[in-house]
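Duplicate of #3305? Posting structure anyway:
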């Protein structure tokens, strides 16, 4: 896909939504996930960075639409840092909803606002090494400290899928005992507070901006609630375009998408093409 060709959605709902968005960009919200959508998946989560084309594309698009939001499982401040979102001309009103919407960073203020922390995270953090040890201490398994959550990554384990499968039960037990939930993702099991998800975060953002159309792009299971939110908006008469970044690893998402792109490079090209296609 070249940077100035807009791909055609494969579904009628997607094509209708894109037509509305092109006709009425100033009342459209564009919301995107971070890892796997703006940033290529890498083995070490601390090395993830936005694709070089992603921020320029968002910055070109943002002044032409009602709002641009990044909705991520990352802490908001981490996504801002890894994305390079602060101080970018054009992204003066960018909103980053971190921890699935429990945190919010506004480019306009540079500040993060957050829900109160859940006490179960401290208890889970303390018990986690013992639980991993008893489950077989899979070599290469890595704990990501996320502040208001902890995540166990298996991508660098000798057998990532076997480690993921073996740890799912014990980590679910641990989370449940302390009032947390397990959020499964691409070779990651996150133990986090319940009550917020990307769907709720997206709906609140759309309500706040008063948008009349929406684009959402994601790549992982944690994006399914946002897809469901767009489907609900569509049922209520608000056109929505669902974009899946990467097609094979998370088929539950690509099966519901109007447009499937092959990862962050194509997502960045799509956002740039969208910016080119709508008037200033
Ligand atoms: O909601 P997202 O922005 O997609 O964040 C979801 C999780 O992404 C990160 O993990 C994923 O990306 C890593 C870096 O590419 C990769 O190594 C890992 O296998 C993926 O699951 C991040 O580390 C998590 O905290 C996020 O919740």
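Output from current build:
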């Amino acid at each position: 896909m070249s940077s100035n060709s807009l791909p055609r959605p494969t579904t009628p709902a997607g094509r209708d939504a894109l037509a509305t968005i092109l006709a009425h960009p100033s009342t459209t919200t564009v919301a995107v996930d971070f890892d796997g959508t703006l940033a290529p998946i890498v083995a070490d989560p601390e090395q993830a960075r936005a694709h070089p084309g992603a921020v320029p594309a968002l910055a070109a698009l943002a002044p032409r639409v009602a709002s641009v939001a990044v909705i991520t499982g990352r802490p908001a401040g981490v996504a801002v840092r890894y994305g390079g979102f602060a101080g970018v001309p054009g992204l003066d009103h960018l909103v980053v909803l971190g921890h699935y919407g429990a945190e919010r960073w506004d480019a306009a203020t540079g500040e993060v606002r957050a829900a109160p922390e859940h006490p179960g995270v401290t208890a889970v953090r303390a018990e986690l090494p013992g639980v991993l040890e008893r489950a077989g201490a899979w070599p290469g398994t890595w704990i990501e400290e996320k502040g208001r959550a902890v995540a166990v990554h298996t991508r660098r384990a000798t057998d990532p899928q076997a480690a993921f499968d073996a740890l799912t039960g014990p980590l679910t037990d641990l989370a449940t005992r302390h009032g947390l939930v397990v959020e499964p993702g691409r070779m990651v099991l996150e133990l986090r507070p319940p009550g917020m998800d990307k769907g709720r975060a997206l709906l609140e953002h759309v309500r706040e901006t008063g948008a009349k159309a929406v684009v959402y792009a994601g790549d992982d299971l944690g994006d399914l609630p946002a897809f469901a939110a767009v489907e609900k908006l569509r049922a209520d008469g608000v056109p929505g375009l669902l974009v899946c970044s990467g097609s094979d690893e998370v088929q539950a998402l690509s099966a519901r998408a109007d447009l499937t792109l092959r990862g962050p490079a194509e997502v960045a090209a799509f956002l740039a093409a969208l910016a080119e296609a709508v008037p200033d």
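Confirmed duplicate; merging threads. The radius of gyration is 18 Å. Residues 120-192 form a domain with the Alpha-Beta Plaits fold (CATH 3.30.70.1020).
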